[in-house]
Model the fold of this input.
Amino acid sequence: MSTGKKRSGPRGIAPAGNPVLRWIEMFLDYCRSECHLADNTVAAYRRDMAKFATWLGQRRFQDLTIRELADYPAFLSQHELAPVSVARHIVALKVFFRYLQLEGALRDNLAELLGSQKLWQRVPQVLSPEMIDQLLAAPRLHDPLWRRDRALLELLYATGCRASEVSNLRPDDVHLTEGFCLARGKGDKERLVPLGRRAIAAVQEYLTHERPKLIESAAIPPRWLLLSRRGRRLRRERIWELVKCYALRVGAPASVGPHTLRHSFATHVLVGGADLRQVQEMLGHASICTTQIYTHVDPARLKRIHQQFHPRG
Done:
């Protein structure tokens, strides 16, 4: 028997009477089952689509004009979203509209015409090689699991992996003799990443002296490389805490996190002469455009390029 109340959409996306709800759920299912996107990515799309459905209201997305759609970024800004978050929402909308085109629900993807300000391409924070050396040496003998923490920091900087990728590394993913590891990125895409001698030494030290003791604390044999003191997987959140703790110890900026080591890795190998395509492969970027942000980071590199190629350089 009906209570006369309207049902809410999933997780408060929009009233159930709005047909866009069905399309959003099918889009999320498509991302999850056919594109094999990570759970975190699908959850982010869900949050972004919730904002879009709220803005859309009872209108049909098929009837939107580019003039109407151009008001969407302003709507996001009015809700006090940071510029980078606004840009991410626009990217999510473009992906959603591409899906609608594939399904025949839309003929033209007007979202592609939206200016996203390219704010996600802002210059990332990068540490100097000298500061990196201090950070990687920050775990000391008096720290409870200093060998593990050194292995963690060395892996983050040596591979350029995301915190979640390092958290999910298994012992058989790391091939110390051959000098590489197997990382699983977004959408469970696998890539091989080289390991330097310092990272190899730090991981070997951890495997020899600390991991066996941590395994003893586990209720069941753990299958992860980096373990907590209870023998469980070292979570992504804990990795953030550790990086920030050691960054504070060496006087690095408070904003430093695992992604700073990823940015620093990419910038330093480019400065050293690596090809942009090689860096793209090591970082696991789907698009070369994402990797190109690192070509703008090092002023000295830009100056060398200018002197080399400009006729009056």
About this structure: Residues 83-102 form the longest helix (20 residues). Residues 129-307 form a domain with the hpI Integrase; Chain A fold (CATH 1.10.443.10).
